[in-house]
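Hi V.,

You were right to ask for the full record rather than a summary. Here it is.
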Amino acid sequence: MIRLVASLAIILVLMFSAADLYAATVELWPETYFQLQQYRDVDRLKVDKTRFTQYLTFNLFEEAEVPRHRFFASFRIDVDLGTDASPDVNPNPLAYQSMALLYAYWEWRRIGDAVDLTVGRQIVADELGMAALDGVRVVVRRNWYVGLDLHAGLEVKGGLNLEEDGFYLPNSDTFEPDGTIGDDLTTGAFGAAAFLDGVEDTDLRVQYRHLYSGETDGQKAGVVFRQRLFDVWELYTLDDFNILMERFSQLHFGTGLNFGWIAVNVDHWASNPDFDGDSIFNFFPIYAEKELALSLYFAMDDKTRFNLGYSRLHQGDTSIVFDDWGHEGNASHMARFSAWRRLGEYTDLRLNWSMNRGWGGDTQRFLLGAGSYVWNRHIRLDAAWMGTYYSQLLYTDVLEKLANTGFSWGFYGQSEFRLHPEVSILLQGEVSSNRYIERQFALFSVLDVHMWL
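Predicted structure:
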């Protein structure tokens, strides 16, 4: 806790000492979530669950002709208010709370008309994924056609203090490195990137990141490239290379033509798992995957859109190039179709259908939905019915008694009430059922207040 308070204090001191005395615009954005859920556990016993989550986003913007200083912060409190009436459940609902500082950072932009500085808890998102860190990020650019992006700090892990069970920063299931749980050592995070700046129709960025704690170590390099030709043709690639494992983690490239009313895209994607270890508790094998996909977009007018797609997914080997179409034991055909149609000014209809045949079983899924604004756009009503027909599923030990086929369905209804330009309430109900598990339902409510002061 001391480290957290000290970090916030340093950010605010730097912010106000570096800034000229301008007024500030305050953005205050609280979001309140309440959830009720009833579902079946692995023994098909009914479980009732209640959950409350509160987000608070607090941002400051300098009021100046050319604003240079900004501060962003977001907090979350998540409380499990109880799971059924089991005698094993802790009677104190607050025992399951978690509090999180998702981010809190200050930006000082255009220092010397060349440097952007970011200090504090931040989430760096780039071609290597997401990295949560307490530290500093510096971006250098000044009409040189090449820019630099540097960041360094301490990686944010699951717990701020191991003695405070309910305090997580920010998500323990997301930011643990290399799948390692319980690594309480301080992990340094360092990264650097070079990118093209101000080059029309061409994007290029080369990235490196290193995480090191003494127990877990990770080094990755990546590249992103996009080239647009003749205003209609695009070539792109996004690749990650794991330096320690000496192999690609991801290889993604494709090309597409876009004429506005019609577009076609061919895409290749391949991945190898970064996890390097064996465990008897891995119920699902971790396979390398590669996919070759074709998609087509078509718009008859501004009220009608269609999407078509086909892909071939191959799982189970470590080659990175799609040179083997596989067989039905480790590959699958996938097709999809979607349509959207607007009726009048306030109503829209949508239809989705997809099919998978091969690895994992044979399934067909559909969704039929509609939405409409009423009462001068103050209320938005939305509903959809969806279903899945499945046969020959991969995991037959449980399902073979019922011929390993069936149909599951679900329905959701949603209403959003715009009470004020800054205040809205959303209510959503969901229900689903199939031949193996009895009906389940969930209810969500969201109070969204977005204020500028």
